[in-house]
Every structure is written in structure tokens, then in C-alpha cells.
Protein 1
Amino acid sequence: MPSFAKQPFPALALLSLIAGPALAQSPAVPSMSQNLPAISVGQVVLNAGANFAGSNEPIRSGLVWRIFEDRGDTSQPNIVARSTSPTPSFTLAPGNYIVHVAYGFASASKRISVQRGNLNERLAINAGALQLKGAVSGSPIAANRLSFSVYVPEAQNSEGRLVIADAKANDMIRLPEGTYHVVSTYGDANAIMRSDLKVESGRVTEATLNHRAATVVLKLVGSAGGEAFAGTAFSVLTPGGDVIREAIGAFPSVTLAEGEYVLIARHEGKVYTREFKVESGLDRDIEIISTP
């Protein structure tokens, strides 16, 4: 079962999608009173900003702004300006535009008409974030051994619609408010955990998905505790015969979900087998002893 906690977004610090475990300092926010560049006759300044929906808390990092020419038809609009500043100022010719701001996978947009002078626009984004970790038997799993996929649940699809694949532990995954299906993969075999998590606007949902798995090292040896034979081909199967993992080498390692397995080793034209059991949190060697 996952353990999780919800925390308010820090007022002065947010991470990008690839941020590490510690919160990064937010970039300096330009003052709205700064001297603006000279405006040519017939041009208008648009001052933009964004806040979390349901609050007046400004979003101070992680924003991508785009200004589109609004042609009023179905043709693809042209981008006339873009910025990654939290509070950008755009110099525009009089006309009709679409202001779009993205915050991770969440966004907001608004149609505006600018004619003269200065215009101030603040868009509300209905967004929060997930920050995910993994553990096994109460011990944290190294971030480089975990990956997460996030889905939007759908009635016609048991897993849902994929939003992001291969997210890393401690990433700040910015998402629209809602419920998401999270799949955590430990290693590269069948150690998988799932959970449904809720994202609330302006908050970080921190969750730890608890795996029941262990890492085993596969060996073909001449005697118990002996030197492993190089160039051995291993196959790990379920008791029903489904292949879980294949590897070649003297002592490859594989992380497996708790349960029972069959190991097959092939070396120099001979085949060896044994059954073994994986217990959660118990990492160990699995040896097959070759027979004459």
C-alpha cells in the first residue's frame, strides 16, 4: 500500500519535472515596476502572470508562455511571442490574440483583444503535483532503480490513458487537478506496484509505493559457493512456464516480485534447472550446481 502526504506548494520554490529531492530556489521574479523597453507608436504591452486556481498564490517558476495570433478561424494560429519568465511582458501590435500558459501537463488559455496602452492579464491554472518514491520492507529504493508511469483513469481501459512514462523518483510531476493511476516499476522485470493518487490544485502529493520484491544473483557453479561459469544463459520462469527474465553472463542480477520461480541455466550444450522462492527484502544468490 502506498503512503502519501499532501503539502502546500512552497510559495518561493518549485521543482522542474527532472528536479532532485531537494527543493530548488525559485528564480528571481521581475518587478512589475521595472523599466520596460521603449514602445513604438501603435504597439501595446501585455503584462502576464499566473496563479493556482482557487487561490491568489502566484506561480513563480516552471511556466511556459505562448502568444498566438487569433485569426478567428480553424487554421493553425501563428506563435508571435513566447517566454519562460514567471511574469513576462510582451510587446504586441494592436489586434486579437490567444494567451496560453503551460505548467507541466496543466495549462490555461484566454482570448484577448489589445488596442492601446498597457494590459495586465493573470491566468488561473488548476494544477498540483506528484512527487513519488519507492520502498521495500521499509527501506527506501535507490532512485535509479525505480521508474513511474502516470495514467488518467478511463472506463474503457483498465490502466487508463498514459500521461507520462519513465518518470524518476523525486521528480516534481506537474499535473491538472484530478485522480491518477500510478504504476511503479522496481528493476526491469516484474516487480510492479500500482496505486490511485489524487492531485489537488496548489498542493504536492508525496507518495511512497511499497514493493514486495528482492534482487537475486543467478549463478551456475560446479559446487556450492564455487566460481560461476561465464557465458551461461539464464531464464527465469513462473511455475506455469511464463518467461519473466532472460540474461547471459556469469552472475546476472534480476529484481523479482515476491513468489515462486523456476530457473533454467544453459551452458556448453547442457541444461540445468532448479526451483527457488523470492521473499520480500531478502536479496541473495541463487545457485544451480552443474552435474557431470
Protein 2
Amino acid sequence: MPELPEVQTIVSDLNQKIVGYTIVDFWSDWPKAIKNLSLEKFKKEIRNRKILNVRRIGKNIFIDLSNNKTLYIHLKMTGHLLVKPAITKKPASTRGDVRLSTRGGQETKTKNYFDDKVNGYIHHIWKLETKKLKPEKLNVEFSDVRKFAKIVLDDTKKINTLPEIKKLGIDVMDKKFTLKKFEEILEKRKNRAVGLVLMEQELMSGIGNIYRSEILHLANILPQRKIEYLSGQERIKLYRAIFIVLKKAIKMRGTSDSDYRDTFGAPGNFQKVLKVYRKTGKKCSKCATIIKKSTLGQRSIFYCSQCQH
């Protein structure tokens, strides 16, 4: 499942690419993903609305539209959004083509990833138009091989108070997520393992399975350690590790562990610098001890038994 860095990468891309465009049409072959409206009602409601802003809460994407409507998207396990110039006729093949992109804010030559198999499970398309920006027509295509993703359109005020959004804890990249706030959260769960607490979205949102392993390794803390046994210095180190790991992952455009791709259809780069996640049997980069794998909260956790204690 895409975690905070992956979703932030998508949100940043969408703000750069589609804000100012108007939705002129919508297509879907999997209307079950639309949770609160019929397909026809959804198409009618979304048509001719201008895209004003794209934002994120935890792992959730919100696209604010004109006239106080918001499109809420949860990518779930395998969903990702692709932004493409609209074309009336698809070329016979574009595989391997080199194109110009503004990926990361700079115009560079890059491989065309749209033909990669993982990007081919298109089940929803938003068709966009504008007369003020180039290109004038774009498609936002939703690829989702397992079809678990969720799409909701509702009043902006109502979206922000949906039960699944309201119950989320503070976003770990929010400026209000201070050391004091972090310590207050830890005190609420002092009898639980730190590796479990980092994943509790109701306490703090955004950290998933990949980044908890990396954060704890950087902080030199075993996932199984109970909060009550962490020293004040260890808590500070853990707090700092959250920002160091997530900021680096955002800069590297996320981790492509399996199906995640950015809006260009390209994989992230953070998997190239992972220290422990899915490194079972390999040597720790800090001390050369063999990385171990165990289960915590029914999820796999990876760690170094020498560096982490």
C-alpha cells in the first residue's frame, strides 16, 4: 500500500499538473469503486467542475473542486494515478520512447513508462480541458490491478468529517506534530511495542510497514521494545528519525515495493537505499550483522539485532 511519501509525491505532481483544469467527462469500467453515488450520478456531479487544489491527509488524497465539492481517493493496495496528454488515437507502440518531462520540477529526458504492464490496469479516467494551460487536454487515469481503491465525491465540508478521516491521528508531516505531541502519543500506548504504535493511524497517520522498519533501524531501536522502556534520548532520536526517513523518501519520490508508480508511471527511488526492509539474510549496512525478519501485529518487520536494542 502506498504510504505517506508515495501519496505526497502523487499530490505534489497533481498540484503541478492538473490544477486549473476542468473535468469534462469521466469513464469507468469498475463503478464499484465509487462508494456513495451511482456511476451516472457521479459523472453528472463531477462534470464541468474546476480543479482548485490537491491535498493529503495521511495516505488519503483530496482533490478540491469548484462549488464546494471534493473528490476523495484512497489508493488502497495497488492503485496509482497517471497523468497523460489526451490523444484521440494511440500510437502503435510507445514502449521505450524517450520524452521530455518536468518530473521533480526540472525538465529532463526520461523513459516513457506508461506502457509498463503495471500501468496498464486502467479502470477509471477523468478527462480534463483548459484554454489557459498547455497541454489543453489531459487524462487522469487510475490504474489498479486488484481493484480495491476507493473513490468518493461529496461536499467538501462533509468529506472532511467522514468517519474514516475524522478518526485519523495527526499527520506526521504536519507542523503541529511536535516532539511534545509525539511524547503525548507515546504515553497513551506506553505498554505497547513501539513497532506497533508507529503504525496506529488513529494516533499518527502516514507511517506504514516499509517506513516503520527503516525509522526504527535509523533510531537503533528494536520494534518489539515497549514504549515505557524507551529513554528520553531514545524518544528524541525516534522522533528525528521519522522526519529524516520520510523527507528523504519524499525527495526520492517514494518506494516502489510492488505496484506503486508516480503520475509519470515511473517507479520511486527509495527502494535503492532501503537498509532493512525486505533485506532478510543480508548484512546490516552499519555493523554487518545479518538482518532478521519477524512478525509484529500480523505484519512483517525487519531489523538488525545488533544495532537495534
